[in-house]
Amino acid sequence: MVSEPGPPLPFFVYGTLRPGEANHDLFLRGRVAAEQPARLPGAALYDGPGHPYAIERPGGEIQGELVTARPESYAELLAALDRLEEYVPGDPRSLYERVARHVLRTADATPVRAWVYLAAPRVAAGLRATGTRIEGGDWRSRN
User: What's the domain count of the chain?
Assistant: First the structure.
C-alpha cells in the first residue's frame, strides 16, 4: 500500500494511539519527537468496536494528543498509521479518511495543522444514525 503524498504534518491521535493506550507503544515508541495535549474542534467522538471514530460535528470537540514524528521516521510512521486505520487513498472500503485539520494545543490554544483520521463517509453515516457518542469527546472517559 502506498500512502498519498503530503506535507510532513504532525498527527492528532484521540484513541488507542494516546499515551497509555493499546497502540501507543506499538506504533509510536521511538518514532516520535514530541507529544502534547490538544483538541480537535468541530468534531464528535463515537465508540466503535475496540476503537473510536471521529466525525465532523459543529460545536463538538475531541480531546487527544498532537504527535510530531521524528523526521527520519515520518514516512514509516505515516504508512504504519494508514495501515492501522485501514485507510487506503481512494478506496471506498476504507474505515477512515486521513485529512488535514487545525487542532488546538491545549496549553495555549495555538492552532496547528495536523493529520487526523476521521470516519469514512459510509462509517460516519452509520455512526450518526445508530452509534454511541462519547460525551465530552475523551476516549479515556468512555467507561
Answer: 1
